[in-house]
Amino acid sequence: MTDIPDSHPRKASLMSRQKMVEASKRGLLAESAMIAHGRGEAFDYLLGEKTSDSASLAIREAAARLLVAESPVISMNGNSTVLAGSEAIKIASILGCPVEVNIYYRTSDRMESLIGELESLRDRLGSESLDKAGQSIMDVEILGEVADGRILGLQGPRSLCSSRGIEQADVVLVPLEDGDRCKALTSLGKQVIAIDLNPLSRTSKSATVTIVDDVTRAMSRLADELLENPTTTDWDNEAVLRDALDIMSSSSLRIA
Predict the structure, then answer these.
(1) What is the pLDDT of residue 30?
(2) DSSP 65-92
(3) Residues 189 and 201 sit within 8 Å (Cβ to Cβ)
(4) 211 — phi, psi (to 5°)?
(5) What is the mean pLDDT of residues 211-234?
(6) Class (C level, CATH) for 53-255
(7) Cβ–Cβ < 8 Å for 93, 137
(8) Given this model, what pLDDT does residue 85 score?
């Protein structure tokens, strides 16, 4: 996949797909991970594989809310770790918050592998920066190994979390979320910032701020936006979802 020319219109998508394939071989992903990724690719194709204006506004709003949060946390699953792990570390270093691995299909092997992956990304990014930013990166804490917290309203392993992460957080950034957990978090009074390519999903509809965009693009832009110190607005999340649907509908009509 490294020989894909920069001029290829779908290079980024193909590279992401290859990352998923390689990560699956290393045991980082659940068996259903590629299905979820493929579904996202289909929605992204209808978006034109680019960040829309409304998604850019959502990213700015997300940055503003994260900056004023008292206890923000970034919750990462397998797919988001593979596709945007480095970006998550950078965002956490700017906010001074932890990153928590929290997965649906929780096994000790997968948790250990994903935490190790994020720690490796953190150490590499930190060593590449010899300035103050590098130290901030090295200070990012990776949570998830100790599941001493609970998400009230959920049953079974999905309710497990870190008491110093998701349980005490007031704002949770959750790239690639599932609807039940998103609803449970918002019902607890937490703000949920979701990145979801499906504007019709339960996650998109129940999140406080929904970024309808590819996770790698969105997380990279979010890291940049945090440095601009944006301010919160009177946010209308339904308007963002309607705009995404309009873009997708227009694309499907052109194809037809």
Answers:
(1) 72
(2) HHHH-SSEEEEE-HHHHHHHHHHHHHHH
(3) no
(4) -100, 105
(5) 97
(6) alpha beta
(7) yes
(8) 97
